[in-house]
Write a structure and sequence with these properties.
Layout lengths: L3 E5 L4 H12 L3 E6 L24 E5 L5 H11 L3 E4 L6 H6 L1 H22 L4 E7 L21 H20 L2 E7 L2 E2 L8 H13 L6 E3 L5 E2 L2 E2 H12 L7 E3 L5 E2 H11 L8 E3 L17 H6 L8 H15 L7 H9 L9
Parallel strand pairs: 1-2, 1-4, 2-3, 4-5, 5-6, 6-11, 7-10, 8-13
Antiparallel strand pairs: 9-12
Helix pairs in contact: 1-7, 2-4, 4-5, 6-8, 6-10, 8-10, 10-11
EC number: 4.2.1.47
Function: Catalyzes the conversion of GDP-D-mannose to GDP-4-dehydro-6-deoxy-D-mannose.
GO molecular function, one term: NADP+ binding
Length: about 350
Amino acid sequence: MEKKALITGITGQDGSYLAEFLLSKGYEVHGIIRRASTFNTTRIEHIYVDPHKSDARLFLHYGDLSDSEQISNVIYNIRPDEVYHLGAQSHVRVSFDVPEYTGNITALGTTRILEAIRRSGNNIKFYQASSSEMFGASPPPQNESTPFRPRSPYAAAKIYSYWMAVNYREGYDIFACNGILFNHESPRRGETFVTRKITRAIASIISKKQDNLYLGNLDARRDWGYSPEYVMFMWKMLQNKMPDDFVIGTGETHSVREFVDESFSYAGLDQDEFIKIDPRYYRPTEVEALVADPDKAIKKLKWKPKVKFEELVKIMVDADMRAAGLEPIGEGDEIIKKKFPDRWWCAD
């Protein structure tokens, strides 16, 4: 029997890749999108067909994480087998500017979904998109036993969601899993996130459309992986016999400065000519270093990332050059062809 999955945040980076992956597994996929005056479905347009056609397996529903009635109605009407909760106000720097909104959407939104699942009475599996930002000031490497020490409203909201998932699992016997994912990037990363900001700027500089790239803290260190790999392990968590929580990351850490160096060098540019530091991009409280200890996922989920840091950079630079109408260098394209010959996603 065909399984049904519901994805919040389906129009985002992870949501779009996850939708493609689940479709490749034979799922009927449903996504919640916010009603707005403009469309924000660019990342899923290539897989979305007229829902009235007989071959349609992807369906979109209007909803908002701030509205519990809408959330309950969607879950009641769809009756999904699995819910992947990826929707959030997910930009860490922005969370300092809108802390109340971040708490309402990122934290309470999770409660609204869990409560809708509980009230439905159906046997629904739930995936909570937790974040490495929850570890904050805790020294690396970080694993499932590392104390949470949040350094932003976003991280605090994610911790609330993490513990609500645990409480609904233990209190109501809901199959709820937390995926504590470290930074994962791709050509579909939002343009305001630092990695995509860098690779997109390179294409604009080469095209003579941009003179400088303004950044904040170049010394912050992160564990960066490749998003399509990470969404596969969201699914694997819900296929376990018992619900559990997992850290997913590469186990390597690199600074923003290294990302700049690697990407500009790959494109044949001298970063010193273009990089400018702007204090506006510093956070009030900074997370200095995040690096995953994914030993539990390695043993239980057979986690082994294929794409390393330098390869990720090349994939993203090539994609942004192509999007700007430039000829890509090509090494990133070759990495994808070699490492993902059975590639299930349709476009970058």
